[in-house]
Design brief:
A: alpha+beta, six-stranded mixed sheet, flat, B: mainly beta, OB fold (Dihydrolipoamide Acetyltransferase, E2P), five-stranded mixed sheet, 4 helices, globular
């Protein structure tokens, strides 16, 4: 059972990838790209989802995907034009497929008749074609009965293999009923490729399936079977010609039987039975061939010859066999093709397959458990530390004496850095994986709010650590909801304000130093500061006598439980949105900032670390203990002797720097430790916390910059205020990571409680 | 770095005794002997300094690097309210697992491995609240009193109040 669950998990993984690809393709199609590559990619994706769904018995999903696929097939070969309305229907269908997949994954049931409306639309569009319309979808009820196929046995005694199926083999072909061309008869030529067997498919099962459609007559074509000494164990030498008599079977129904092996075989479905004359001629030719027994005897003879005449070369040996090979008639007699009244070759299928293969050859990838990568990341982290420890151990005397060692260490340093970069890039993923979920959201929001909204995405190939990507989906959803609901105005309002009728939301990502900036911008009305402040005062978030700058008011929307919406809508207004954004982003070490231009729009920016595992830090000393401060939050460092401090009435200190007054935190006294370093010899590290608020940390000494691997304190202990975690230095000692944001906020809370 | 891994040694030999007896690692603080169940001990290492943790009680000596993980060190003498130990290289850290977590306890010396019968474990007499809080029981070994340490209690309450 767990095996099946594994397969299911893989299937759902693949589904989510395929659904993403669908979004991508349709984004291009919406832009007006109607190339067949796009359509083929869409078709492939839906087909794969359907195929896997069938194997797991997700009936509803398969039924819908099937109808959708039929439409796509019509679009692909031009029977239905890909008009804008069809494109919209397809996009809607993608969403429905996604819902079906999600329902199948969670094991929940969607409401009965979900997607039926769209299905009817598909049928209406495709009903021009009598072959496909209204064709009942066959049940995907495939029993996987393992069948042991004894190839050697089959060669020796073909009838053993044929018996259960009533396959007419060459010898008794004449016993088969005379095949007359007639309506309701089909000839199917089935030539499996070796991949078909490699994927554990069994033609026998296909023929049985085919037999459910009507009366079948199966003929194996074994002309290609080589002499035994040329026989490759995994070679495929056999093909089949099946005559199916059925009043009801359609070409599509027959193709359906071969659906799971499509691309792994050559399949030709021809209306009408194969002409008898042709058959006889063929048989006569085949009769002329040596029997299996002779084939089998051949190597023995060859061997004898070899023993008798050891000088006999391989070329001669080959020559001796030529007559046998020559006797074999061409596999595909051409008259058959000509005789075909209505004939459909599955060339399209093969094209598609080669397309898939091309893609696979382009970018080869493997699926790896994230845990395994994490282990590698951790070990590389340790390696980096050990390497820097070794380098630190090299003092000047050692350096002078062992130059080879120094050179070796330099190479080691380079290699470790390279290794670290590569490992990090394994975990890095383009933000596209989250961005591509957003178009659907915007479409839904536009429908619900009755607004016209266009989504632009920029920089979706920006790469960021996978763990961060996973945490991004929720915040981005909330931010876009907020923009669509509160930001963008109704079409009437927009027109009145002299804007275009449709609003735009721009989702962008870019790398800035060690950070990734992700911004959600809209061209809506901006934050209504008056109202935000009013609500904040009403709820006691802001005291009555407090005055706030515009920027401070904007940041209020992140306060918990804050909502300005007059009515709680489906979309937002419960006030849980933006503080979720803030807390989620904080959790992964990022920050959020909002900037608003009244009447023109709002921009929310997420600042995220590139990776969670490694941190660039400044190493400092406080009261004899090592501390590290994340480099990304440091603005500048100043010697205390040169810094301008001022005393506040309450006794607190502020630092005057570049015309700003900044709150001062003495780390030694904040951490309740005593230091004997004189004030003037100490240093100020000016840091920027969330929302651009600065805080000046006073430390005893600045030692240098380095990269560290973040270690959790909670793993064996508990969290400590003002400390974000620990790390291990080159000398093996533990240094604590200063939580700049935590220090700043705890300081303000102290003030609050004092007031 | 001279770490002794005890875990493997004890897994086999004492199997017959486990039913109604306990094996203890005994260690000393000053004149007094204490013990912990041997199965909780992960390793024993010499004191090699620790990075102090801010805003913690005096019995939290800080954290050390134990092969890549950060492990907190508790000063058992300070935990008993007898003032901080002034550790030297001869002092010993006993690393133990408490639930899912690994912690180190700073003691003066590790003295012995004791095998005691379960029925010989006495209750801690009511009286001093620290004793009853931190000890699980008392056993007598070679006419000495050995206090059984309650690790969960030792580890709790490490943060500064307020």
């Amino acid at each position: 059972m767990s095996d099946l669950d594994d397969f299911k998990a893989t299937y759902f993984d693949e589904c989510s990838e395929l659904l993403l690809e669908l979004e991508e393709q349709f984004a291009a199609i919406e832009e007006g790209d109607r190339s067949s590559d796009r359509l083929n990619a869409v078709f492939r994706a839906i087909h794969s989802i359907k195929g896997g769904g069938g194997a797991f018995g997700f009936q509803a999903l398969v039924a819908f995907a099937h109808a959708y696929e039929t439409l796509l097939d019509h679009v692909r070969d031009g029977r239905v034009e890909l008009s804008d309305s069809v494109a919209v229907l397809c996009i809607r269908a993608n969403d429905i497929v996604a819902d079906f997949v999600a329902a199948a994954k969670d094991g929940t049931a969607l409401e009965a008749g979900y997607g039926d409306h769209e299905k009817q639309q598909f049928d209406a569009l495709t009903s021009g074609d009598p072959d496909m319309a209204g064709e009942p979808l066959e049940e995907f009820d495939i029993d996987f009965v393992p069948v042991m196929v004894n190839i050697a046995g089959a060669e020796d005694d073909p009838s053993e293999f044929a018996e259960p199926l009533d396959i007419a083999i060459i010898d008794d072909a004449f016993e088969a009923p005379p095949l007359l061309p007639e309506m309701g008869a089909w000839t199917i030529r089935f030539t499996p490729h070796s991949e078909l067997y490699a994927r554990a498919n069994d033609p026998l099962l296909l023929f049985r399936e085919l037999a459910t459609l009507g009366e079948t007559n199966v003929r194996a074509i074994i002309d290609e079977v080589p002499p035994l000494n040329d026989f490759e164990p995994f070679g495929v030498y056999c093909s089949w010609e099946i005559t199916l008599r059925s009043e009801t079977a359609s070409e599509a129904a027959i193709a359906e039987v071969f659906e799971f092996v499509e691309g792994n075989c050559d399949l030709e479905i021809v209306r009408g039975a194969a002409p008898v004359v042709e058959e006889e001629a063929l048989d006569a030719e085949i009769e002329a061939m040596p029997s299996f027994a002779e084939f089998a005897a051949e190597p023995a003879i060859a061997e004898e010859e070899l023993e008798l005449a050891p000088v006999l070369s391989f070329a001669e040996l080959a020559d001796s066999m030529k007559p046998v090979l020559k006797a074999a008639p061409p596999v595909m007699p051409t008259p058959l093709k000509q005789a075909a009244a209505e004939h459909h070759e599955f060339e399209g299928e093969n094209d598609r397959r080669s397309g898939v293969e091309d893609r696979r050859n382009g970018v080869q990838s493997i699926r790896v458990d994230l845990d395994k990568i994490d282990r590698v990341v951790n070990m590389v982290g340790e390696l980096v530390i050990t390497q820097s420890m070794l380098t630190q151990q090299m003092d000047e005397t050692l350096r002078a004496r062992y130059q080879e060692l120094v050179r070796g260490l330099e190479v080691l340093a380079q290699t470790t850095r390279g290794l670290q970069d590569s490992v990090m890039s394994i975990r890095a993923q383009p933000v596209k994986t989250v961005f591509s979920r957003m178009p659907r959201l915007v479409r839904e929001l536009a429908t619900k709010t009755g607004k016209k909204i266009r989504l632009e995405t920029i920089g979706e190939n920006t790469e960021i650590d996978k763990t961060i990507i996973e945490q991004l989906s929720d915040p981005l959803t909330h931010m876009i909801r907020n923009s669509a609901d509160h930001g963008i105005e109704s079409p009437e309002k927009r027109l009145a304000a002299g804007k275009t009728e449709g609003g735009a939301i721009r989702l962008s990502a870019e790398q800035a130093g060690g950070n990734i900036l992700i911004a959600v911008e809209d061209d809506g009305g901006g934050i209504n500061r008056e109202r935000v402040l009013q609500v904040a005062r009403d709820r006691g978030v802001v005291g009555p006598e407090q005055t706030l700058s515009d920027d401070q008011i904007d940041q209020l929307i992140f306060a918990p439980g804050f909502s300005t919406a007059e009515a709680i809508s489906d979309i937002s207004g419960r006030g849980v949105g933006m503080d979720v954004v803030l807390s989620n982003i904080k959790k992964i070490g990022g920050s959020v900032h909002v900037k608003s231009w009244p009447g023109k729009g709002t921009r929310m920016t997420l600042r995220l670390p590139l990776t969670l595992a490694v941190l660039d830090v400044m190493l400092v000393k406080v009261a004899g203990s090592p501390y590290v401060i994340p480099l990304s939050s440091i603005v500048e460092t100043i010697q205390c002797a040169r810094a301008k401090f001022s005393r506040m009435p309450t006794g607190g200190q502020v630092l005057q720097v570049r015309g700003e007054y900044v709150q001062v935190v003495d780390l030694a006294s904040r951490f309740a430790m005593t230091t004997d370093v004189e004030r003037d010899n100490r240093f100020v590290v000016l840091c920027e916390a969330e929302g651009g608020v600065k805080v000046a940390l006073i430390v005893d000494d600045i030692i240098g910059q380095q990269q560290v691997v973040i270690k959790s304190l909670e793993e064996n202990f508990q969290s400590i205020e003002g400390i974000a975690g620990g790390t291990i230095l080159g000398d093996g000692n533990v240094a604590l990571i200063v939580d700049v944001q935590g220090l700043k906020s705890s300081q303000t809370s102290h003030h609050k409680s004092a007031a | 770095m001279e770490a002794l891994a005890f875990k493997d040694d004890i897994s086999g030999g004492s199997a017959a005794q486990t039913a109604n007896s306990l094996q203890l690692i005994a260690f000393s603080i000053g004149e007094q002997t204490y013990g912990v169940e041997i199965t909780t001990v992960r390793e024993i290492r010499a004191w090699n300094g620790a990075t102090p943790l801010p805003n913690t009680r005096e019995f939290v000596r800080g954290v050390i690097n134990l092969r890549g993980t950060i492990v907190p060190i508790f000063d058992l003498r300070a935990r008993f309210g007898e003032g901080q130990t002034s550790p030297t290289k001869n002092h010993v850290v006993v690393v133990m697992s408490v639930g899912e977590k690994w912690v180190g306890i700073l003691v003066d010396a590790v003295s012995d491995i004791l095998t005691v019968a379960k029925e010989d474990i006495h209750h801690v007499p009511e009286g001093n609240s620290i004793d009853t809080e931190l000890l699980n029981g008392i056993v007598t070994h070679d006419s000495r009193m050995v206090g059984l340490i309650d690790l969960h209690a030792v580890v709790s309450g490490a943060k500064m109040d307020g």
